[in-house]
Write a structure and sequence with these properties.
Layout: E1 5-9, H1 13-26, E2 31-36, E3 47-50, E4 53-56, E5 62-63, H2 67-75, E6 82-83, E7 90-94, E8 97-100, E9 105-106, E10 109-110, H3 122-129, H4 146-154, H5 157-171, H6 180-183, H7 185-192, H8 198-205, E11 220-223, H9 228-238, E12 241-244, E13 248-253, E14 258-263, E15 268-273, E16 275-278, H10 282-289, H11 294-300, E17 305-315, E18 326-329, E19 343-347, H12 349-352, E20 361-367, H13 380-395, E21 403-414, H14 420-431, E22 437-439, H15 449-472
Parallel strand pairs: 1-2, 1-16, 2-12, 7-18, 16-22
Antiparallel strand pairs: 3-4, 5-11, 6-11, 7-8, 9-10, 13-14, 14-15, 17-20, 17-21, 18-19, 19-20
Length: 473
């Protein structure tokens, strides 16, 4: 009997995690082919050398409170490389001032008025304090834009000064378009339970305070050699046949399996396989499913994507970097001379991560929100220039960097709009009609590394169950 052959389309963390799980489920004889359009694996997990340090210029950390990433790292035998942030505070630039990000909030949604007093005007604080007296919220199972709900209950400041910068850091999107149920499911669940106040609903999501002298568990983790360490470990464990630089142009069912058309239209190649895991961004998934699962393709087409760029800089040793992990910048913030900020966030990596606090001071600035396409068409040199100017305005640092790396992520961030969960449900139901095919990736159930791994595991399990069931028959 010939070995089973599965194609994984997309070599990001979702595709590689799926390949690894398929190897575990199907065994060493299975042929697993990863088809990656670019010239490298890892997707948004990308580690470069910056002034002699391994430095992440895409995703820089994973959420520890979700188990999938930590468990996979343990399974792969690289858990000794896990490190956690130093604990220095994060800040936010809003209302013309830089202040610590308030505690006792859910992605900026306050659990009490006092929690956010420091970042609001007197009027904004009064609006938040009065929220419980408003008529109760009744979602009745519907979704709503985060910004709409915040504005109705708190006025404009909470969304602009707190939730906007925090959600912007995750999705590069705006509360005006992001949906509550996909971006803040805990809050939606609390409101569905009958809690009619947004303050009270946020309060129910807060973890219990730690006992006196108890050490708080870390929220985030990363790998000391960069997250590409995870990419390399997954490739070793999955041992796939990797095909680089070849776009998949079409999928076709051929009675007993699938045929992939890959490469150029002028001289296509064909790959016949038994199953497929599709782990690509929404625009690519839409194209590939248009003929074989048009209902899924239609829903993928409704998922917008945002682009961004990371400007990594190594500053000379001895530069006075602030004792904080970074700063988020609210949309519309301006310099003292009214010049608008270009960056949406800075990470002071040498303060945030102890393993990077050695020699040059490492900083990354992030630029690009949903719809800001013109900004990302500027040259690398221009982006470095404007980000340096933003850093000088925020911190007073004018030292020229000794090394820089500009990395652009075109269409890399899916937008979880109103009704996103319904779109995903429709995609998964439509794809379930295709024998031996499953989808994974950041467009579905979360953009973080653990969520992507969860979709990969589920997709691999579905494909393997189909193939093994077919073999047994």
């Amino acid at each position: 009997m010939r070995p089973l052959h599965v194609a994984v389309i997309g070599g990001g963390v979702s595709g590689l995690a799926a390949a690894h799980r398929l190897r575990k489920l199907l065994g060493p004889r299975a042929v697993i082919t990863v088809v990656e359009q670019s010239d490298r694996l890892g997707g948004k997990l990308r580690t470069v050398e910056l002034a002699g340090h391994a430095y992440d210029v895409g995703t820089e950390a994973f959420l520890v409170r979700r188990p999938e990433a930590a468990e996979l790292i343990l399974e792969l035998g690289i858990s000794a490389s896990v490190v956690h942030p130093t604990g220095v505070p994060a800040t936010i630039r809003a209302g013309g001032h830089v202040r610590p990000i308030p505690a006792h909030t859910l992605m900026g949604v306050p659990a009490s008025a006092e929690a956010v007093r420091s970042v609001l005007s007197d009027e904004g604080y009064s609006r938040v304090a009065a929220e419980p007296a408003l008529p109760p919220i009744h979602l009745d199972g519907a979704d709503v834009a985060v910004g709409t709900l915040l504005h109705e209950r708190f006025g404009p400041e909470v969304g602009a000064r707190l939730v906007g910068p925090l959600l912007g850091g995750v999705y590069a999107g705006s509360p005006k378009s992001l949906g509550l149920r996909a971006t803040m499911p805990q809050l939606a669940t609390a409101l569905d339970s009958g809690i009619g106040s947004l303050l009270a609903a946020a309060a129910t999501t807060m973890p219990a305070p730690p006992q006196a002298r108890a050490k708080r568990p870390p929220v985030f983790g990363t790998l000391s050699g960069g997250l590409s360490t995870l990419v390399d470990a997954l490739e070793r464990a999955a041992a796939p046949d990797v095909r680089f630089g070849l776009p998949v142009r079409a999928l076709a069912w051929r009675d007993v399996g699938w045929r992939l058309e890959i490469g150029s239209a002028a001289s296509p190649e064909y790959l016949d396989v038994d199953g497929i895991v599709l782990a690509v961004p929404a625009p690519s998934a839409r194209k590939l499913l248009a003929d074989v699962a048009p209902a899924a393709a239609k829903r993928y087409a409704e998922i917008d994507v945002a682009s961004m760029a990371v400007i990594a800089m190594a500053l000379p040793p001895g530069t006075e970097l602030p004792e904080r992990s970074g700063v988020l910048i609210a949309e519309g913030e301006r310099y003292r001379d009214t010049t608008p900020f270009t960056a949406k966030a800075f990470t002071f990596s040498s303060r945030k991560w102890a393993h990077l606090d050695d020699g040059p001071l490492l900083v990354r600035g992030s630029v690009g929100r949903f719809g800001q396409t013109a900004l990302l068409q500027r040259s690398d040199a221009d982006l470095v220039k404007v980000v340096r100017a933003d850093l000088a305005e925020l911190t007073g640092i004018t030292a020229a960097p000794i090394d820089t790396v500009v990395t652009r992520w075109g269409g890399g961030l899916p937008q979880y709009g109103v009704g996103h969960l319904d779109l995903v449900s429709g995609i998964e139901h439509a794809v379930a009609e295709l024998p031996g095919v499953a989808v994974a990736g950041a467009s579905l159930h979360g953009v973080g590394v653990p969520a992507c791994i969860a979709t990969a595991d589920a997709a691999a399990a579905r494909v393997a169950a189909h193939l093994l069931g077919r073999v047994r028959r």
